Amino acid sequence: MALPKELSKQQRKELVEAFIQEFADQYQFPYTAAVHNHRVS
After folding, report:
1. What H or E segment, with its residue span, contains residue 14?
2. Ramachandran angles phi, psi of 22, nearest 5°
3. Angle at alpha carbon of residue 18, lines to 14 and 23, rounded to 5°
4. Long-range CB contacts (within 8 A, 24+) of 31-35
5. What is the mean pLDDT of the chain?
6. Which of 7, 9, 10, 15 has the most crowded Cβ, counting Cβ within 10 A?
């Protein structure tokens, strides 16, 4: 998933955690997540 670059690192982390929590609870799947912070040139 692409996260809005306008969000802070903390906001992106919280958004991913909330998405994963809902997805994992609903479908009972294990998960792994990685957030890559790309530099804008």
Report:
1. helix 9-27
2. -65, -45
3. 150
4. 35/3
5. 84
6. 15
Q: Two tokens at 17?
A: 């955690």
Q: Encode pLDDT of 9-26 as tens digits.
A: 899 989 989 988 888 888
Query: What six digits make up the tokens of 19?
Result: 């998405």
Token output for 34? 């990685």
Q: Which amino acid type is present at position 29?
A: F
Residue at token pair 């890559």: 36
d(C-alpha 31, C-alpha 41), whole Å: 31
Judge whether 12 and 35 are in contact, CB under 8 Å: yes
What pLDDT was estimated at residue 18?
93
Tell me the three state secondary structure of residue 41. Answer: coil
